Amino acid sequence: MEIVSKPLMGQIDPFFMTAFRFFIGGLFLMPLIEKKLPPREIILLTMIGSLNTIVSMTFLQLSVKFGNASTAATLIATNPLFVTIFAPFFGSEKPSKRKFIGTFLGFVGILIFISGMLEGDTITGFLFGIGSAISFALYTLLLKPHVLKHGALTATAYSSFFSGVVYSATLMLFGQFKITSLNLSSWLILLYLGIGVTGIAYFTFFAAAKRIGASTASRVFYLKPVVATLLAFIFLSEEIGAFKLIGIVVIILSLMI
Description:
Elements: H1 2-5, H2 14-29, H3 39-65, H4 69-76, H5 79-86, H6 97-115, H7 123-150, H8 152-173, H9 184-212, H10 214-218, H11 223-235, H12 242-256
Protein backbone atom coordinates (compact mmCIF):
# COMPACT_ATOMS: atom_id res chain seq x y z
CA MET A 1 0.00 0.00 0.00
CA GLU A 2 2.71 2.47 1.02
CA ILE A 3 4.89 1.71 -1.99
CA VAL A 4 2.24 2.03 -4.71
CA SER A 5 0.58 5.10 -3.17
CA LYS A 6 3.78 7.11 -2.65
CA PRO A 7 4.09 8.19 -6.33
CA LEU A 8 0.48 9.45 -6.26
CA MET A 9 1.04 11.83 -3.35
CA GLY A 10 1.78 14.70 -5.73
CA GLN A 11 -1.36 13.99 -7.76
CA ILE A 12 -4.08 12.92 -5.31
CA ASP A 13 -5.20 14.41 -2.01
CA PRO A 14 -4.46 11.83 0.76
CA PHE A 15 -7.91 12.39 2.30
CA PHE A 16 -9.68 11.65 -0.98
CA MET A 17 -7.43 8.63 -1.61
CA THR A 18 -8.28 7.09 1.76
CA ALA A 19 -12.02 7.74 1.47
CA PHE A 20 -12.09 6.36 -2.07
CA ARG A 21 -10.20 3.17 -1.32
CA PHE A 22 -12.42 2.25 1.63
CA PHE A 23 -15.58 3.02 -0.30
CA ILE A 24 -14.39 0.84 -3.20
CA GLY A 25 -13.04 -1.87 -0.92
CA GLY A 26 -16.29 -2.03 1.03
CA LEU A 27 -18.31 -1.94 -2.19
CA PHE A 28 -16.32 -4.91 -3.46
CA LEU A 29 -17.09 -6.90 -0.29
CA MET A 30 -20.76 -5.95 0.23
CA PRO A 31 -22.21 -8.38 -2.38
CA LEU A 32 -20.31 -11.19 -0.65
CA ILE A 33 -21.67 -10.60 2.88
CA GLU A 34 -22.98 -13.59 4.75
CA LYS A 35 -25.97 -11.88 6.37
CA LYS A 36 -27.79 -8.58 6.67
CA LEU A 37 -27.41 -6.63 9.90
CA PRO A 38 -29.90 -4.43 11.77
CA PRO A 39 -29.47 -0.62 11.63
CA ARG A 40 -28.12 -0.42 15.20
CA GLU A 41 -25.33 -2.88 14.39
CA ILE A 42 -24.53 -1.08 11.13
CA ILE A 43 -24.18 2.24 12.97
CA LEU A 44 -21.85 0.64 15.52
CA LEU A 45 -19.69 -0.94 12.81
CA THR A 46 -19.62 2.38 10.95
CA MET A 47 -18.29 4.13 14.06
CA ILE A 48 -15.64 1.46 14.61
CA GLY A 49 -14.73 1.50 10.93
CA SER A 50 -14.37 5.29 11.01
CA LEU A 51 -11.67 4.95 13.66
CA ASN A 52 -9.69 3.03 11.08
CA THR A 53 -10.73 4.78 7.87
CA ILE A 54 -10.90 8.42 8.95
CA VAL A 55 -8.23 8.34 11.65
CA SER A 56 -5.74 5.49 11.30
CA MET A 57 -5.49 5.11 7.53
CA THR A 58 -5.53 8.87 6.95
CA PHE A 59 -2.65 9.20 9.41
CA LEU A 60 -0.84 6.42 7.55
CA GLN A 61 -1.34 8.12 4.19
CA LEU A 62 -0.05 11.38 5.65
CA SER A 63 2.95 9.49 7.02
CA VAL A 64 3.62 8.27 3.48
CA LYS A 65 3.25 11.81 2.17
CA PHE A 66 5.62 13.41 4.69
CA GLY A 67 8.22 10.62 4.83
CA ASN A 68 9.62 7.56 3.13
CA ALA A 69 7.17 4.80 2.21
CA SER A 70 9.27 2.15 3.97
CA THR A 71 9.32 4.20 7.18
CA ALA A 72 5.54 4.64 7.15
CA ALA A 73 5.13 0.89 6.66
CA THR A 74 7.45 0.24 9.58
CA LEU A 75 5.62 2.61 11.92
CA ILE A 76 2.18 1.10 11.27
CA ALA A 77 3.85 -2.25 11.99
CA THR A 78 4.26 -1.21 15.65
CA ASN A 79 0.50 -1.68 16.18
CA PRO A 80 0.91 -5.21 17.66
CA LEU A 81 2.72 -3.64 20.60
CA PHE A 82 -0.29 -1.47 21.29
CA VAL A 83 -2.67 -4.40 20.73
CA THR A 84 -0.78 -6.33 23.40
CA ILE A 85 -0.89 -3.33 25.76
CA PHE A 86 -4.58 -2.54 25.20
CA ALA A 87 -5.92 -6.12 24.92
CA PRO A 88 -6.40 -6.74 28.70
CA PHE A 89 -8.50 -3.56 28.99
CA PHE A 90 -10.86 -4.93 26.32
CA GLY A 91 -11.26 -8.28 28.02
CA SER A 92 -9.31 -9.86 25.19
CA GLU A 93 -6.65 -12.51 25.39
CA LYS A 94 -3.90 -11.90 27.94
CA PRO A 95 -0.39 -12.03 26.49
CA SER A 96 1.70 -15.05 27.43
CA LYS A 97 5.33 -14.63 28.43
CA ARG A 98 6.44 -15.83 24.99
CA LYS A 99 4.07 -13.40 23.23
CA PHE A 100 5.29 -10.56 25.40
CA ILE A 101 8.95 -11.33 24.67
CA GLY A 102 8.27 -11.66 20.94
CA THR A 103 6.30 -8.43 20.86
CA PHE A 104 8.92 -6.56 22.86
CA LEU A 105 11.76 -7.85 20.66
CA GLY A 106 9.81 -6.85 17.55
CA PHE A 107 9.33 -3.37 18.93
CA VAL A 108 13.07 -3.13 19.70
CA GLY A 109 13.74 -4.10 16.09
CA ILE A 110 11.41 -1.39 14.87
CA LEU A 111 13.11 1.19 17.13
CA ILE A 112 16.48 0.20 15.66
CA PHE A 113 14.96 0.48 12.19
CA ILE A 114 13.59 3.97 12.92
CA SER A 115 16.93 5.14 14.38
CA GLY A 116 18.36 4.76 10.91
CA MET A 117 16.20 7.57 9.50
CA LEU A 118 17.45 8.60 6.08
CA GLU A 119 16.86 11.38 3.59
CA GLY A 120 13.13 11.82 3.08
CA ASP A 121 12.15 10.91 6.65
CA THR A 122 10.60 13.64 8.83
CA ILE A 123 9.37 14.04 12.41
CA THR A 124 5.90 14.87 11.03
CA GLY A 125 5.83 11.62 9.10
CA PHE A 126 7.03 9.76 12.17
CA LEU A 127 4.26 11.19 14.41
CA PHE A 128 1.54 10.42 11.87
CA GLY A 129 2.87 6.85 11.60
CA ILE A 130 2.77 6.26 15.36
CA GLY A 131 -0.73 7.77 15.56
CA SER A 132 -1.80 5.40 12.82
CA ALA A 133 -0.44 2.39 14.70
CA ILE A 134 -2.18 3.30 17.97
CA SER A 135 -5.57 3.94 16.35
CA PHE A 136 -5.33 0.77 14.22
CA ALA A 137 -4.62 -1.29 17.35
CA LEU A 138 -7.77 0.08 18.97
CA TYR A 139 -9.74 -0.61 15.80
CA THR A 140 -8.50 -4.21 15.73
CA LEU A 141 -9.63 -4.84 19.30
CA LEU A 142 -12.98 -3.08 18.88
CA LEU A 143 -13.85 -4.96 15.70
CA LYS A 144 -12.83 -8.41 16.93
CA PRO A 145 -16.09 -9.13 18.88
CA HIS A 146 -18.10 -8.28 15.77
CA VAL A 147 -15.88 -10.55 13.68
CA LEU A 148 -16.61 -13.38 16.13
CA LYS A 149 -20.33 -12.55 16.06
CA HIS A 150 -20.92 -11.93 12.37
CA GLY A 151 -17.87 -13.33 10.60
CA ALA A 152 -14.82 -11.56 9.18
CA LEU A 153 -16.37 -10.88 5.79
CA THR A 154 -19.57 -9.28 7.10
CA ALA A 155 -17.87 -7.17 9.79
CA THR A 156 -15.15 -5.99 7.41
CA ALA A 157 -17.56 -5.18 4.58
CA TYR A 158 -19.94 -3.11 6.71
CA SER A 159 -17.21 -1.28 8.64
CA SER A 160 -15.25 -0.45 5.47
CA PHE A 161 -18.10 0.51 3.14
CA PHE A 162 -20.17 2.66 5.48
CA SER A 163 -17.15 4.40 7.03
CA GLY A 164 -16.04 5.13 3.45
CA VAL A 165 -19.47 6.61 2.74
CA VAL A 166 -19.29 8.77 5.88
CA TYR A 167 -15.75 9.90 5.03
CA SER A 168 -16.71 10.76 1.43
CA ALA A 169 -19.82 12.64 2.57
CA THR A 170 -17.76 14.62 5.10
CA LEU A 171 -15.23 15.61 2.44
CA MET A 172 -18.07 16.65 0.11
CA LEU A 173 -19.63 18.73 2.90
CA PHE A 174 -16.40 20.67 3.31
CA GLY A 175 -15.73 20.86 -0.43
CA GLN A 176 -12.65 18.62 -0.23
CA PHE A 177 -13.88 15.66 -2.31
CA LYS A 178 -11.93 16.51 -5.44
CA ILE A 179 -11.28 14.02 -8.24
CA THR A 180 -8.24 15.16 -10.18
CA SER A 181 -7.39 14.19 -13.75
CA LEU A 182 -5.59 10.85 -13.59
CA ASN A 183 -4.12 8.51 -16.17
CA LEU A 184 -5.01 4.83 -16.48
CA SER A 185 -2.13 3.58 -14.32
CA SER A 186 -3.13 5.93 -11.47
CA TRP A 187 -6.73 4.68 -11.58
CA LEU A 188 -5.49 1.08 -11.55
CA ILE A 189 -3.44 1.87 -8.45
CA LEU A 190 -6.52 3.35 -6.76
CA LEU A 191 -8.54 0.25 -7.62
CA TYR A 192 -5.77 -1.95 -6.24
CA LEU A 193 -5.73 0.08 -3.02
CA GLY A 194 -9.49 -0.37 -2.74
CA ILE A 195 -10.07 -3.97 -3.82
CA GLY A 196 -6.71 -5.54 -2.95
CA VAL A 197 -5.49 -3.67 0.13
CA THR A 198 -8.80 -2.61 1.66
CA GLY A 199 -11.12 -5.39 0.51
CA ILE A 200 -9.28 -8.69 0.27
CA ALA A 201 -6.43 -7.96 2.71
CA TYR A 202 -8.69 -6.67 5.51
CA PHE A 203 -10.98 -9.67 5.19
CA THR A 204 -8.12 -12.17 5.39
CA PHE A 205 -6.53 -10.31 8.32
CA PHE A 206 -9.67 -10.43 10.47
CA ALA A 207 -10.35 -14.01 9.44
CA ALA A 208 -6.90 -14.79 10.87
CA ALA A 209 -7.63 -12.77 14.04
CA LYS A 210 -10.78 -14.84 14.57
CA ARG A 211 -8.81 -18.09 14.35
CA ILE A 212 -5.57 -17.28 16.19
CA GLY A 213 -6.35 -14.17 18.27
CA ALA A 214 -5.83 -10.44 17.68
CA SER A 215 -2.36 -10.25 19.26
CA THR A 216 -0.96 -13.16 17.26
CA ALA A 217 -2.53 -12.01 13.99
CA SER A 218 -1.27 -8.46 14.52
CA ARG A 219 2.33 -9.64 14.79
CA VAL A 220 2.19 -10.49 11.09
CA PHE A 221 2.62 -6.72 10.71
CA TYR A 222 6.25 -7.20 11.68
CA LEU A 223 6.75 -8.51 8.15
CA LYS A 224 5.78 -5.11 6.73
CA PRO A 225 9.14 -3.39 7.40
CA VAL A 226 10.97 -6.23 5.66
CA VAL A 227 8.72 -6.39 2.62
CA ALA A 228 8.16 -2.64 2.34
CA THR A 229 11.86 -1.79 2.62
CA LEU A 230 12.79 -4.23 -0.12
CA LEU A 231 9.97 -3.04 -2.40
CA ALA A 232 10.80 0.63 -1.71
CA PHE A 233 14.42 -0.07 -2.62
CA ILE A 234 13.40 -1.81 -5.86
CA PHE A 235 10.61 0.48 -7.05
CA LEU A 236 11.27 3.84 -5.34
CA SER A 237 15.08 3.70 -5.03
CA GLU A 238 14.85 4.39 -1.29
CA GLU A 239 18.10 3.80 0.59
CA ILE A 240 18.61 0.90 2.99
CA GLY A 241 20.96 1.88 5.81
CA ALA A 242 22.81 -0.33 8.27
CA PHE A 243 20.36 0.34 11.10
CA LYS A 244 17.43 -0.60 8.88
CA LEU A 245 19.09 -3.90 8.01
CA ILE A 246 19.83 -4.66 11.68
CA GLY A 247 16.24 -3.78 12.57
CA ILE A 248 14.93 -6.16 9.91
CA VAL A 249 17.02 -9.03 11.35
CA VAL A 250 15.68 -8.37 14.87
CA ILE A 251 12.12 -8.25 13.54
CA ILE A 252 12.56 -11.62 11.84
CA LEU A 253 13.86 -13.08 15.14
CA SER A 254 10.79 -11.75 16.93
CA LEU A 255 8.58 -13.52 14.39
CA MET A 256 10.41 -16.78 15.02
CA ILE A 257 9.71 -16.41 18.76
